[in-house]
Backbone:
């Protein structure tokens, strides 16, 4: 009698290969000897001779502020996920696990600095004063992000992988050409966010080359969350990503991306370098995406649960909470108040999302250009006439 055959998926992407599993595990190492860390996963404060000065002013109140930022941003993120599951959003891109990288670097910016995000930077948006409700339209498919990118100094989200590195390089070159670089107080700098997978894109390479050739005041902030959807870090590079900067002629630093204090200090240093004319700089924030790539992805198909469990022990929020309680004697009342604030934010987000108006068919034409365009106006009129031609008047 024949042995029953094991079920083999016809689509090879349906199951992680042996190589992928091994590569995924290798991607979870500790970050190496050069990792900059000021707060250990156990909540113990360490030191770093190069970067200590950049966190010296962070006392208990400032640390409480960073903790609050991370808790609120995580809550907004979890609500985004839930709203997608409830059918209120088309998709959500979770930041779970990357709160420290985003809040630390986001709070390092000065008002005059400019930021170019990818699509996962909800924490950086928060630091730039973009309310989480303003992100919802992107994921509900009703707008491309409602904020004024010039006023907030925060560019629209970029979905095309790595493309924002070119936009940021051009912007930072402009800052240099317009002599906005040099003064340690009023000088300007730009920060550009991208992922580990993006480093394999030509746009990122070109951004590195142009920024270096023109001494642009640009901090390249790579959140290495170990995965580019189902592709592990080992498929992107043979050397740690921060070491790539050397080949372009500028410094690269690897920071513990789950350590908000270290991310704040290293990014302050990098922005100062850029502001005073010593840019560009590459920061690799060594972190982990604890959720799936998006709500359309199922990470359990390509990575082991053990890996996620390992990274939960390095949770960026928990280590700050432990430090605040054990070393700085912060009372439980503070944590309850932050939790209550997170609950209020969640209610506000849900109510806002459910009451968002559905735009009419003219909406997709109304903000293509800043000024009226006869071509777009003609396309709009034709489209509206087509809609009006349905006898039941329904928009299709
Ligand atoms: C130019 C381009 N190619 C492919 C995609 C599809 N895509 C979306 S996200 C992604 C992976 C990006 O990984 P990474 O840069 O590590 O960022 P992460 O999502 O992990 O933050 C890919 C390939 C895209 N959006 N743009
Ligand atoms: Mg990634």
Residues:
């Amino acid at each position: 009698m024949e042995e029953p055959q094991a079920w083999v998926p016809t689509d090879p992407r349906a199951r992680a290969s042996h190589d992928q599993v091994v590569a995924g595990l290798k991607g979870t190492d500790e970050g190496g000897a050069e990792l900059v860390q000021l707060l250990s996963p156990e909540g113990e404060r360490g030191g770093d001779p190069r970067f200590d000065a950049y966190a010296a002013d962070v006392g208990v109140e400032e640390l409480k502020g960073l903790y609050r930022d991370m808790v609120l941003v995580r809550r907004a993120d979890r609500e985004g996920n839930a709203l997608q599951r409830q059918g209120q959003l088309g998709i959500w891109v979770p930041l779970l696990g990357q709160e420290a990288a985003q809040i630390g670097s986001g709070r390092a910016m000065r008002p005059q600095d400019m930021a170019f995000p990818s699509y996962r930077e909800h924490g950086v948006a928060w630091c730039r004063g973009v309310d989480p409700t303003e992100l919802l339209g992107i994921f509900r498919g009703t707008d491309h992000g409602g904020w004024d990118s010039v006023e907030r100094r925060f560019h629209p989200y970029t979905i095309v992988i790595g493309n924002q590195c070119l936009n940021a390089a051009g912007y930072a070159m402009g800052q240099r050409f317009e002599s906005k670089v040099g003064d340690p107080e009023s000088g300007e700098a730009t920060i550009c966010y991208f992922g580990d997978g993006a480093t394999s894109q030509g746009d990122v390479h070109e951004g590195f080359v142009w920024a270096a050739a023109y001494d642009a005041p640009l901090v390249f902030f790579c959140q290495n969350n170990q995965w580019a959807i189902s592709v592990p870090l080992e498929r992107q590079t043979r050397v740690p990503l921060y070491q790539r900067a050397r080949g372009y002629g500028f410094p690269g630093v690897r920071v513990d991306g789950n350590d908000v204090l270290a991310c704040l200090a290293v990014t302050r240093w990098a922005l100062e370098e850029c502001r005073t004319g010593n840019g560009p700089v590459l920061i690799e924030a060594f972190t982990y995406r604890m959720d799936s790539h998006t709500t359309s992805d199922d990470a359990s198909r390509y990575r082991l649960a053990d890996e996620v469990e390992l990274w939960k022990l390095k949770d960026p929020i928990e280590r700050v909470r432990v430090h605040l309680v054990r070393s700085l004697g912060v009372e439980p009342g503070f944590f309850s108040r932050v939790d209550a604030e997170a609950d209020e934010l969640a209610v506000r987000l849900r109510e806002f999302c459910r009451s968002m108006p559905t735009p009419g068919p003219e909406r997709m034409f109304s903000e293509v250009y800043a000024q009226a365009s006869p071509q777009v106006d003609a396309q709009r009129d034709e489209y509206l006439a087509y809609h009006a031609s349905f006898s039941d008047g329904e928009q299709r």
Q: What stands out?
A: The chain has 15 helices and seven strands.
